[in-house]
Design goal:
Blueprint: H1 3-13, H2 18-37, E1 42-44, E2 48-55, E3 58-61, E4 68-71, E5 74-81, H3 83-90
Antiparallel strand pairs: 1-2, 2-5, 3-4
């Protein structure tokens, strides 16, 4: 499923027009992105949670040349599956 499929499913399940459904989906994803950008955790009970993981800077090597390089610190978003979703997929 992609964003367009989600918009169509929302439109079919509600009385929203396609543009209204698209606005709802965009708002949902924008709010998740904005919260993660601020460093907040996003939890959708029964489905999943999103959080930001912080990595410290470290010394690494270029795998092609073997030349040592410095890898800067970074933040990456992570997804953790909820228990109900995990059980539903496993069945």
């Amino acid at each position: 499923m992609n964003k367009l499929n989600l918009i169509e499913a929302l439109q079919n399940e509600t009385d929203l027009t396609k543009s209204e459904a698209e606005s709802v989906v965009k708002l949902f994803f924008n709010e998740i992105s904005n919260s993660l950008a601020k460093g907040d955790r996003v939890e959708i009970r029964g489905l999943c949670s999103f959080y930001v993981k912080h990595y410290k800077a470290y010394a690494g090597k270029n795998p092609k040349t073997g030349v040592p390089i410095r890898v800067e610190s970074k933040k990456l978003p992570f997804f953790k599956c909820g228990k109900e979703l995990r059980e539903r997929v496993d069945n």
